[in-house]
Amino acid sequence: MQSIALVLANILDQFTPALQTIPEDKMTFKPSPGKWSKKEIIGHLADSAQNNIRRFIVAQYETNPHIVYKQDNWVVISGYQYYDTAELISLWRLLNKHIVMILKNTPPEAMSRQCLTGSLHTIEWLAEDYIKHL
């Protein structure tokens, strides 16, 4: 898990400054009514972080917890399109810094514990998939 945590920390270091340079009009632009703006995409990534935090923790003490989320509902209900951009980027960054700490503190024997997310996956698989998704 240490190597996955390091990859995530590097992603945060690399992409946080880049996100902060995107102009507001580009952050709020929606390519079509059914598509997300960049703000909503960042909000979705914050939602993904929150749900994965729960998976990484709960799977260590419960047997095969069932943790799923409906991403479109979360984005709409959270109202990310109307967030202050700097605060939204900070939310995304801080949630992911928390994941870095969780992964660093996950004992090797816990990596094979499983969580049901639609399919049954190990914590290690979920962490690797989280990095790919991000």
Keywords:
about 130 residues, mainly alpha, 2 strands, two-stranded antiparallel ribbon, Four Helix Bundle (Hemerythrin (Met), subunit A)
Structure description:
The chain is mainly alpha-helical. 63% of the residues lie in helices and 4% in strands. It has helices at 2-20, 24-28, 38-58, 71-78, 85-105, 123-133; strands spanning 114-116, 120-122. Strand 1 (114-116) and strand 2 (120-122) form a beta hairpin. The chain is globular, with a radius of gyration of 15 Å.
CATH topology: Four Helix Bundle (Hemerythrin (Met), subunit A)
SS class = mainly alpha
**Average pLDDT over all residues:** 96
Strand residue percentage: under 5%
CATH class: Mainly Alpha
Q: Low-confidence parts lasting 5 or more residues at pLDDT below 50?
A: none
* Beta strand count: 2
